[in-house]
Each structure stands twice: as C-alpha cells, then as structure tokens.
C-alpha cells in the first residue's frame, strides 16, 4: 500500500514538474520577447534622440551634470551663414568687376603691372567658389556637413589662396617702390619679371600651406564647427614651431616689407610734390608731363597704401588671437570666432578700396553695370567737345607769350601715366 502511494506521489510530482517546466519555459520565452521588443524600442528612441542631439551638449550621469561648452546656437550659425553669404555676394560682384574692367580694356590689359591686380582679383574670387561654400552650407545646416578630407581640403585651399593674395600685395608694394623711388630701374619691371613674380607668390604660398599635409602643422575644425583652418590648439613641438613660423614669415615679414616700401614712397612723393610747387608756372610740355606723372603717382600711391592698411586691419585680430591661442588653449568661442569671421571679409575689400580711391575705376565700374549717366556723380569732367575718357585728366597751366607776358590760364586734356588703372 505504501509502495503504491509512493509511486503515485512520484508520478504526481513528475507530472507537476513537467507542467511547471512548460509554464516556466513559456513565461521565459514571453519575457524574452517582451525584453527584446522593449530593447529594440529603446535603441530606436536612443538613436532618434542621438541624431537630434546638438553637436555640443551637456552629459548627465545620474543626478550629476558635467558642463561642456555648448558651442554656437542654431541662431548664431544662421547669422554666420547670412554674413558669409553677404560677403560672398560682395566679393563675387567686386572682383568680377575688376576682372571685367581690366580684361576688356586693351591698354590696361597690356600693362604688365596690372597683371598683379588680375591675379589678386582671381584669388579673392576663387575663395568664394573653392572654399567658402562648404562653410556656408554647414552654417545653414547647423553642423559640419562634410567629411574630414573635405575639412582638410577647405582649410588648405582657403589658406593657400589667402596667402597668395597677401604675397601679391607685397609684390605690388615693391613694384610701386621701384617705379617711384627708383625710376631709373623701372624698365626692369617687364612682363617677364611680372610672370616670375606671380609664380614666386604661388610657390611661396604652396610651401607654407602644403607642409601641414605632410606632418609639420595640421588642419582642423574651427571652434564654431562649420569651418576648417590651421589647428591652433595643438601644443606639440612640431605644431607650435610651424604656427610661430607662419606668424613670422606669412604676416610679420609681409607687414614689415609693405610698411618699409610705403615709408620710402611717401617720402619720395612729398619731395616730388614740393619740387612741383617750387617750379611755379608751367610753360614747357615736358614740365606739364612731369606734373601729370607726380599727380598720378600720388593718386595710385594713396590707393595702394589704403589697400595695405585694410589688409593689416583685417588680418591683425586673427593673427593676434591665433598667437595667443598657441599658448592659452581655453579661450571662449566668440574670441576665436569673431576675428576669423572678420578676416574672411578680406576677399571683398580690395574692389571697395579701388572704387573709393580711383576715379577711373569708378567710371569704368559704372560702365560695366550700364550706369553711364553717373558721370557727374563720380567726377568725370567735360571738355567743350566731348566727355573725357577715364584714362584722361585735365591739367591747367598759366600760359605765357614768347616775351614772357601772362596770357591767362589754359588747360589741356592729357592721358594718365598711371600703371594701375
């Protein structure tokens, strides 16, 4: 009896155990399904939130929050995009006008010195098509939209073209120095020498911009995350040595050469003007040509000097901040971003300087845009028979008879002797 009872209990226990195992297995499979479903949903929510997260944010661990620089807001980046778009429109319009004026005029096109202005306008124009579009697109999107290779390319190209523009400005200063301070050697400024000078400007730029590609220095994202340039934040010896060399050889040396050239030019022009005033009345044609040359040199010198001043003012804040950034890494974003954005206006400044300081350029610019009725506004004089050409100027003089009797004041229309417009 006891044996049968024991066998019955074992059977019931086995049956219950098998039922329990089936229930447990069923519940386990259901639990695993629910867990897998919840995990996939959680991963989807996390991925969705991650894609919508800003580039810079704060990271939370439990109840503690680690503060990270939030970076530029979407509104700030939109303002940057609109600002660079405005700069681009001005740069394209101004430099296209410069190229059109010089290339359409056979006299201007044939003068070797104006080839420097052609290259300068081409460099300023190419920045807008080869470099800034990446920044503008990224600024409108709120983040860098391209890969690291494009970042390196954009940093290299913008730096290469900008440095070439700086080199061309130095070459223009040296050419002006030779023409005014060393007129006896101005015959050396030929088309061949101009071509060699342009090649040297590009070669010098390529050396300083290509070395980061092979390990001396590097290119990286700028603090406002939509543009790339030299990496000023690295503190390794190779990077610091390259950055210090760049500041010296690509900015300080340029400024020193241009200031020294215009110091001598300014002194020579003042001496020529003083000698002109001491001559008194003009009688002979050669003296009139001399005065015409002095006046033209003064105008062109003022224009070139203002170009140098603008160049210095545009790049000085950027150079200063970058130099400080080499030794002081923790700088607020706005202190590094504002000088960078200000330096980006350099590509539109030169045409504005030409327009403000050169009457011939103003006249030809209005002609390019079909505004021929603006002659009176820009100061085009009229002779009795015709309107003057932009390359002509009226020179007044006191007319004397053969016996030295004063016959009154007369004027003559002469062609400008300037090599720059």
TrEMBL record:
PROSITE patterns: G_PROTEIN_RECEP_F1_2, OPSIN
Single GO term (MF): photoreceptor activity
Membrane topology category: Multi-pass membrane protein
Boundaries of every G-protein coupled receptors family 1 profile domain copy: 94-354
GO BP field: phototransduction
Subcellular location: Membrane
Pfam families (UniProt xref): 7tm_1
Domain of life: Eukaryota
GO cellular component: membrane
Annotated TM spans: 80-103, 115-141, 153-175, 196-220, 240-262, 303-327, 333-355
Alphabetic keyword roster: Chromophore, G-protein coupled receptor, Membrane, Photoreceptor protein, Receptor, Retinal protein, Sensory transduction, Transducer, Transmembrane, Transmembrane helix
InterPro entries, sorted: GPCR_opsins (IPR050125), GPCR_Rhodpsn (IPR000276), GPCR_Rhodpsn_7TM (IPR017452), Retinal_BS (IPR027430)
UniProt-recorded name of the protein: G-protein coupled receptors family 1 profile domain-containing protein
Native source species: Elysia crispata
